[in-house]
Amino acid sequence: MKILAIGDIVGENGLEKLEQELPKLKEEQKIDFVIVNSENVAGGMGITFKTFNKLLKLDIDVMTMGNHTWAKKDIFTFINHPKLLRPANYSKGVVGKGYSIYSCKSKKIAVIDLIGRTDMNVLSENPFTVAKELVEKLQKQADIIVIDFHAEATAEKIAMKYFLDGKVNVLFGTHTHVQTADEEVTQNGLGYITDLGMTGPKQSVIGMEIAASIKRFETSLPERYQLAQGDCILNGCIFEINDENCRTEKVNRISL
To answer: What confidence tens digit (pLDDT) does each residue in 36-47 have?
Structure first.
């Protein structure tokens, strides 16, 4: 089993890069299952009905969200689509699903979306507590458990790795838009990377226009962010999982 996870899609130009590269990547690498973080696909913040439908046409299995889940009002018209997940540790009663189980190659794959609490400015329940509850529940229902941990702090993501080691099969971080070089397979068969990176403009400040970003830091004024233009990169990871014991055997980091 090969699971491809792709880092935050930033804007419509990042979506175009995904449209160009994903079909080739799936064919060349013989990918079985695709997860894409889509919380920034519309103008760099949120997702719209239009961008969501473009993603559906790419035959993506799961689209995860994060702190910009509610940035576009469109989402309330399709939030319950089976392929779309918002963070599972949002407050109870919030619309949408935080996890779901999918079928692939005679296996049941549970995907959980979580959001961090350190420096995220989002009201949410404790991701560690929610993760423990969901994993205990889903271990009885799924062969493979995959988690997208959308978090700012590296320490929070690494702590989650040790917290869930031996209990889930894949754990990857999203949100920072900067790909880390710490991909690994633990002794207990967990495939891990702190952050997948992003799919968006290469010459940018995490996808945003450089001059406006610098001005914000230089002056401390609320300069409006603008999407950067130009050539895009695609970041992600391929997690290879043993079909017999469901342990992750290899993690290949991708930067195109």
So the answer is: 999 999 999 999
DSSP state of 128: H
Tokens of 55: 């993603």
The set of residues, in sequence order, having a beta carbon less than 8 Å from that of 228 and lying 6+ positions away, is 200, 201, 203, 204, 205, 207, 208, 209, 210
Q: How many CA atoms lie within 13 A of 90 on its CB side?
A: 20
CB of 7 within 8 A of CB of 180? no
Catalytic positions: 68
Q: Hey, what are 67's tokens?
A: 């702190």
Residues 6+ apart with CB under 8 A from 163: 128, 131, 132
Give the span between the Cα atoms of 172 and 66, in whole angstroms. 13
Q: Could you report the per-residue pLDDT of 121-174, keeping only the tens digit for each?
A: 887 899 999 999 999 999 999 999 999 999 999 999 999 999 999 999 999 999
First-to-final CA distance of the chain: 22
| Alpha carbon distance 47, 70 (integer Å) | 8
pTM score: 0.96
Tokens of 90: 């949002």
Query: For domain 2-255, which architecture applies?
Result: 4-Layer Sandwich (3.60)
What letter would DSSP give residue 74? Answer: G
8 A C-beta contact, residue 195 and residue 236: no
DSSP code, position 111: E
Q: How far apart are CA 79 and CA 206, in angstroms?
A: 26
Rg (CA), the chain: 17
